[in-house]
Amino acid sequence: MLRFEHVSKRYPDAGEALTDVSFHLHRGEMAFLTGRSGAGKSTLLKLIAMMEQCTRGSVLLDGQDITRIGERKIPYMRRNLGLIFQDYKLLNDRTVFDNVALPLVVSGYNHQEVARRVRASLDKVGLLGKEKKHPLALSGGEQQRVGIARAIVNKPKLILADEPTGNLDPDLSAEVMFMFEQFKQVGVTVLIASHDIELINHLGHRVLTLDKGHLIAS
Ligand SMILES: Nc1ncnc2c1ncn2[C@@H]1O[C@H](COP(=O)(O)OP(=O)(O)OP(=O)(O)O)[C@@H](O)[C@H]1O
Q1: Is Metal-binding given among the entry's keywords (predicted)?
Q2: What angle do CA 144, 146, 148 make, to 5 degrees?
Q3: Nearest CA to ligand 1 atom 24
């Protein structure tokens, strides 16, 4: 489903952030990406999200090499991805409904379909009834669940999460991980960058470990 083939990434005026990274994630697989600060975790996720381009190698999403697609196809390809961030990246002057609706509005869905899908997503993360609230009126755990609802509203094949539990206490972190496990159950592939070794070991999923840009365990 997701395949890295000998991928390297060098930023201008910086050393190599990733060196000759190869791995394969199957459909419905859930894996953690770990490594010290600066090991290249965010860079790897950015290559998949088409926010950065690799210097060498190929990144294949469902067999399609996303390092070689044209600029105009990128928004279309991104609809296959759900992105989740440590700091939630919500629009604080918009309601929960509007935040979750955003990817659908950008994709041009009609009003009724937007409303139906937003409610279904909010239901999946246990936030039905909070549509009219603003993010800052919610707890950190709830804000992250809004971020997750927004990530799944387009029914992505692949969810990428960058330190999604970095700002949450252990109970809320476990709750968020439980949600990811439910997405995996319905065939969504999930890749989570995390420092939280205790949580990672406890959950027992596959672990990809980066060390100074090299994949040392997968
Ligand atoms: N835009 C950029 N320009 C130049 N160098 C960068 C850029 N982004 C990242 N780097 C460098 O690439 C390397 C990998 O960074 P990256 O953010 O991918 O690591 P990380 O494992 O996600 O770290 P953290 O856990 O601290 O978020 C680091 O040496 C970093 O300084």
Answers
A1: no
A2: 70
A3: 37
Q: Assess whether 31 and 135 both reside in one domain.
A: no
Output the pLDDT for position 107.
84
Tens of pLDDT, residues 92-121: 999 999 999 999 998 889 999 999 999 999
Chain-wide mean pLDDT for the chain?
A: 94
40: CA distance to ligand 1 center in Å?
A: 6
Query: Is 171 domain-assigned?
Result: yes
Domain extent at residue 134: 94-149
Q: Is residue 199 within 8 Å of 173, Cβ to Cβ?
A: yes
User: In this structure, which residue's CA is closest to atom 17 in ligand 1?
Assistant: 42
